[in-house]
Structures are given as C-alpha cells and as structure tokens.
Amino acid sequence: MNEAWRDAVLLALSHACSQDPSLIKEAERKLKTWEVEPGFYSLLMLIFKNESLDVNIRWIAILYMKNGVERYWRKSAPHSISEEEKGFMKQNLITSFDEPVNQVATQVAVLISKIARMGLRDWPELFPSLLKEVRESKDPLHQQRSLLVLNHVIKMLASKRLIPDRQHFRQITSDIFGFILQLWQSTTASLLELYQMKDMRVLASLELSTLTLKVLRKLIIHGFTEFEPTSQPVCLLQAVFEKIKIILQYRKAETGNHNLQEKLEKYVILLTKVLIDTQEHHALSFSPLMQPSLELCYNYLFTSQGQENIFEKFALQCCKLMKIIVKCDMYKPPREIKDTTPQEIVKAHQVKMAFFTPTVLSEIVRQLILRYFPLTSEDLESWESDPENFVSEEAGESWRYNLRACTEVLYLSLLSEFRSTVTPVVTEMIKLVQGSPPSDDMTVLLQKDAVYNACGLASYDLFDEIDFDQWFTNQLLHELNNSSTRYKVLRRRVIWMSGQWINVKFARQTRPVLYQVLLKLMNAQEDLVFLDESFGSLFHLLKCTQDCDTKMHVLYVLSLLIQRIGSKVQPFAALLSLYLPELWQSSGDHNMLRCAIVSTMTHLVEGLGVLSRNMYSFLVPLIQLSTDVSQPPHIYLLEDGLDLWQNVLVNASCMTAELLQLFVNMPSLLELGSENLRICFGIIESYVLLDQRQFLQNFSAPVVDACLRMLGNIKPEGGIILSRVVETIIKVSPLTGTELFVPVLLKIFHMILEVEVKLFTYLFCLGTHSSSGHLPVYYGEIILHNYPAFIHIVENVAQQLSKQVTDVLTQLLDIWLDKMDCMTRLERRKLTVLSLVTLLPLNVNKCVIDKFAIIVDAAVDVLHEIHRVEDGGIHTDCLVLLVGDDDDDEEHTEEHKRKRQLCLSDPVNCCPLWKFVRDKLQECHSVYGQETFQYLMGCLDSAVATQLATFINH
C-alpha cells in the first residue's frame, strides 16, 4: 500500500471532520476524486479497522465505504470495485463484530446489509459467520454486534420485492426462524430474571431481546406466506401477549429510572407491532389470535385496571390493532355462506361478532368519546401558545401516529360495522348534552366538545336520528354567541360540526344565520384573527399568519371563494395583486406554499377575465419560473404553472411580447412528454388562436420539430391531442400554417399510405368529440382553403414513394371514402364531402373523375343527415350557425369568443351543404361539358340521382 496515499487519505478524512468549511470542501473534492481509484476502499477499510485513530476519522471512513458500495459495487457500474477488493472488504467486515463505538458499529451493520442486498449469493459465508457469532460468542459485545448486523441484513433483504428474492428470503426464514425464536426466548427469560434481581446488566439484556425480536418481526412478516395454528410463528405470537403484560408492569414500576422506563416502553411498542404487522400481512393465519388480541386491547384501553398501566403510544398501538381487526375484509364472509366459503373466514367472523356484544360496544363507544376524544390540558396549552401550529397539527396528523385521530378512526370503524348497535348509544349521548343546562365548568365543556366531535364525525350515519336544524337554532347558536373565553372550545367545535352537517342535513333558511355568526367570529378577539367581511377577513388572516401550513389552508379557502364568486372577485383583485407577489417573494424554498399561490392565481385569472392583463408583471415571471425545467422548483410548480399559463392565454385579449416570450420554455416541456402533453398542446392551440401570425413567425419551428418527433412514436390518445393542434393551425392560417407545417403533413400522408393505415384507421374511426377523423381533416381544410398546397403535398409524397401522382391520389381517396362511414361526427362528415366535392370541378386528375359517382353518393348520404325543411318550406342545414345563435347571459372567455369567430367562418358552419353541392355540380357542368357531365350523372344510382335532385332543386 502506498504510504503517501494512505497519509493523504488520512489527512483528507481528518479535514472532512473539521469545522472549517474550506477544509471540508477541499477534502470532499479529493475524496471524490479517489473514490474511483482501485484500492481506495481497501485503504478505507484499513483506516476504519485501526482503533487507535480518532473515532470521527473512522466514522467518516465507514461512511465513504458505504456510499462507494452504493455506487460502485455492482459489476455493471462504471469504475466498479474489483472482485479482489470486494473480497478483501467482505473478509474484514465479517470479523468486525468487536467494534466498541455504537455509532460506528451501526454504520458497519448498514454497510454489510447493503452488500448483502446487492450480492448475497456471492457472499455465502455471511450467514454462517453471523449465526456462529450469535450462537457461540461468550463476549456480550460480540453477540450484540452480530445481532445488530443480522437485524440490518434481514431488514435489507426483506425490502426486496422481486419474486426470486422473496423466495430466497422465505428459504432463509425457514433455515433460521427456529434458532432466532429460541434465542429470543432465552434472552427474554434472561431479561426477566435480571430485572427481578435488579442486576445492572438488564439494559444489555433488553437490547439483545429487542434485536432478536426485530429480526423475528421481519421474518414473520416477509418470510411466510401462511402458517398453521401449531407453528413456530404462532408460538411467538402467543408469547407476545404474556410479555406485553409483564413488561407493562415493569415499566409502571420504573418511575424513577427514566432511561430504563423509556427502553421498556419501546420494547412494548415493538411487541404490539409484531401483532399488528402479522395481522395486516397474514390475516387468516392470525385469526386464531383474534380473541386474545381483542381482549388485550379492550382490557388496556377500556377498563380502569388496564388504563393504570398504559401510556399514550401503547394506547395508540392497541387502537390500531382493534381497528384493523374490525375493518379486515378477510374476516367478512359473503352474505350467503356456501360450502365453498373458507372456514377460516367464517370462524374469524364468528369470533369478531361474539366479542363485540352490545354491552362491549356500548362501553367502548362511551369510553372513546368521554375518555379519548376530549382535548387535554396539553392541547389547550398548545392552543394558547401557538394557535397556528395547534390547528396545523390537528389537520395534518395521520391516524396511525396520533392517539386521538386513531380513536376517531376506530369509532367510525365500529359505527360502520355495527351501526344498529352503536347509533343508539351515540344518539343517547347527544340527547343528554342537548338537554343539559349551560355551564362554565371546563370539564363539562370538554365533554360536550367530545360529544359534538362524535356527532360531526358520524353525520352521515345520524341524519335520520338528529334534527340538526332544530338543535342548531335552539342550542348551538346560543353557544356560538356566548363570548366567554371558556366557550371558545365549543365555538370552535360547533363551527366544525356545522361544516360536517351542512351537506347532510342543514336547511337553506338556517344557513344565513350561520354565515352571520361566521363573520362575527372572524374578529380581533377570536382565534381566527381579523376584520368584518369574509373576503377581507381571509385576506388579512393570510397576511398576519406566520406558519406556512396555515397560509396554505387560508389560500385554499380563498381559492374556493374566488371560484364561487367568479367575476365578482374584481373589487378584491387590487388587494391580492399587492400582497400575493410579496408572499411569493417571502415564501422562498416553501414550494408547497408557492404551489398554493400559483393555484390561487389561476382561479383569480379566471375570475378577472380580460382584466388579468393588469397583473402580467407578476403572472409572467411566476409562470416562467414554474415551467422552466432547468429550475429546481419546477418539480413542484410545473402542473399548477401550466394551468395558470393556459388560463392567462385563454383570458388574454391580445398577444403581448411578454406572453410570446414565455413560449421559450415550451420546447423543453414537449421533450418531457408524459402527463403534461395534453395541456402543453392546449397552450400551443391557445397561442395560435390568440395571434397566429406572431406565434408562427417566431415559434413554428419547435412546434414542427415536436410534431415530427412524436408522430408515430406516441400512443393514439397523444396523437389525437397533437392532431387537434395541427388542425387548428391550418384552420386559422390555411396559407402560412400549411406552408410551415408541410413536413408534418408529408409525414402524416406518408404514414397513411405506407403503414397500411393502421394508426390512421384508428384515429379515423374514433368517434369522440375531439378526435374523429383528424388526419383526413387536415387535407379537407387544405383543399378548401389552399388547394395548390394540397397538390404540392401529393406530388411530394409521390416523389418520396417513387409513385405516380395518380396512384397516390387514388389511394388517398379510396381510404378516405372507405373510412367515411366510421366517422361519427356530422361536422367531420360534412367537411369530407365539402372537400371531395371541391375536387370534382377542378379537373385535377382522372382518378377524381372516376370517383364522381362515389363522391356524389357520399354527399347525398350526408345531406340526409343534416338537411332540414323548416315551416314554410325553408331549406336549412342543421350545422349552419348564425351570428346570434350563441347570444346568452353566460360570461365567455376571450378564447371562447375567438373560437366562436373561427367557427362562424368555417365552411362547415357557414355554408349550407345542399347549396354548395349544387354550385359545384354546376361548375362541373361548365368544366366537363354537357356530354361528359350527363355521362357522369348517368353513372349515379337512380335512387341517389332522384334524392340529389330533391335536395338541390328547390
């Protein structure tokens, strides 16, 4: 080993431990360079094994080994670690069970587990060495360290999810479960004996028992598919119940030894997690243990004797265990039990129903509401000291980690499973508080709060039992108007409960009274902090709150209010336009708060409509940052930023330079594709509708490139989105747009003819509102508005395919006419007829004349669908729109107006088909001459000719 290099690495590691940022930076640079050098990790191993060195240097060395293993252990990794060096590392690691420093020992265990996860089959000596050390070592440190490594290895292997890996893990479980179970039994017996003897070694014994139990927990969850009632896993689970009872008694006795009491609490939690995890992963195998599990939970949660021994985290685990048993689908037999119904399910259901008697259910529900629902003194203190944090915590806690939230979920689960028994109990408790006299006693108020909480949670189950309107008018309203400081608990809860009931059973005539009270509560003396009108109050509350979560909640309510009032938001826009930019600047790295701001701005733009242009100075930079994929915040802001971008364009009255400049972000977004493709093309369409000349002049190239790249390489749904944009471009700009998009149109034409029309046929045949026949629509629009461009495209395709123009045109017409019956939208069918009939008098090619009868037949077919004769004999076309047809009281966006104007100028909507066909046939008569024309008309089916005459001769 190069001594100079060793010294350099040692120096770099020591600098990496220093407090000097410049030394740390230089050390990290050097270590980064060395991490791909052969022998570097062997050198780190030697440094780590040298216990004479400073512990911080050894700790940094093991960290760099761990990071290097993650990057370079796999054979396929660039600069992968050589097999020789891997062997050296593994040989030294399995002799490192005597590490004296806990933090370093933990990192060694993690390092070994990572190597095992990536190549256990290449390390066959790992498990034998571990188990031998655990089994034979007389040194407590060696045994603890080897168990620590075993725990991390098992934990890492259990996380693998591929089928071969899971099978391998089950084999490992089969090999070691019995031994680990015996080890746990012996270490636990030793723990109990040492505790009774008041031996100082009890903590070390407790740690060994904890490590073995952690290993058993992973093995029983992931190492079995199922197990029998007499199997070793059941033996473990049965022992867990006994150990919980004993350890809880020990824990209660250790009031003066906080360290031991805390470790005993963690051990009890681990024991209950074994039960919970086993039930969640092996519900049917767990069913024989349902009865003792439910008894355990009931005795400790709902009896006075058991409640003396529990602590909050253990109570939470018991609630979780009871809840998952109550709601487990595997314990619910079908309504009609047959011979084929598994007996395990039937027995489990019988056990559950036998346990939850009306008496037991009544006691559980009463205890949940009166013991676990009320606010505690700690809650009230938190409310006083930090109201924002109190509300935020309450809103954001998961039932799996918060006792009150878990008791609420258990309550709802019992109500769902045993509605007929639980509902009368809850109703009785509600009626008791309804009839109780007013009181300032805090205990009474907190119990009322708890009952109101139960009533609000169960609103959908109690709507037939409770007359909420009468209750609100006769009692709750008076409690809301009680300004006593103590009554703020009830004021808060009544408002919340009213929110739970308002969509269930809350009369409209009662709601104005509630709204008045809400505004009254939003004054400076209440916890919601300010002003006299709802919008102004929310705005000032937004300004005065400090917590980001609270600001997000207020912004959500503001957004909802803006959505509901629509254009009536305009008087408040000035306030928001002043404050939201300030909030945006101060939000810094709080990306979720910025998401809420962007979402609020989207709704504000919708409400302001064309007046949103006054906020471009804020909106445009906001959109630019949110949609710039080179900026880290785009990960959080992109989706909302795209929505805002589109809404700004939809409500814009004209193009501006700043709006146009935003499009520089779009090419990178189009390369991302995925779920944002739809809205990205929607934005492109909005740009085209807003100002096609400026947009196409500046940004047609990236749009064309994106279309060429995606055509044929995306799913049909994506092709439909893309094709709609191209159609809009051609409609809005038939001359310039067609010229710029010739490469795209050529590729589409080529796909139609060359790829056996598979993609084309799929798109052609789709009958949805936005997709039916998009591809031929391109050419229909071009024929109507830019016929020379159509001929140019056909000639180019013929040249590319080395075919005659006649052959290419014939093939297109055959496909078009053949698939016309697949079109479901009348607009598409009419456009097809308009474009094909347009070709007839142009004398383009003999192939068109050959299709004369088929084209006219198609025209008659569509005429049958859209031709109408109104009263008075007036002939009309049902697709023709008049200027005033869309006049109504509804407010329309600027883009809707643009689309409406485009629609009115579209031949499909402005030209009666019967008149168009008549005029084109007259042109044919002039172009072909009398003799040829009569010959072509004679080729028509007699019935078709008669029907045609009926349509056009009137």
Automatic annotation (TrEMBL):
UniProt keyword Cytoplasm, yes or no: yes
PROSITE patterns with a match to the protein in the record: IMPORTIN_B_NT
Record Pfam families: Cse1, IBN_N, TPR_IPO11
GO BP, sorted A to Z: protein import into nucleus
Domain Importin N-terminal positions: 27-99
InterPro entries according to UniProt: ARM-like, ARM-type_fold, Importin-beta_N, TPR_IPO7/11-like, XPO2_central
Subcellular location: Cytoplasm; Nucleus
Annotated keywords: Cytoplasm, Nucleus, Protein transport, Transport
GO cellular component, one term: nuclear envelope
Molecular function terms from GO: small GTPase binding
Superkingdom of the source species: Eukaryota
Chief site of localization: cytoplasm
Protein family: Belongs to the importin beta family.
Protein name: Importin-11
Source organism (scientific name): Desmophyllum pertusum
Gene name per UniProt: IPO11
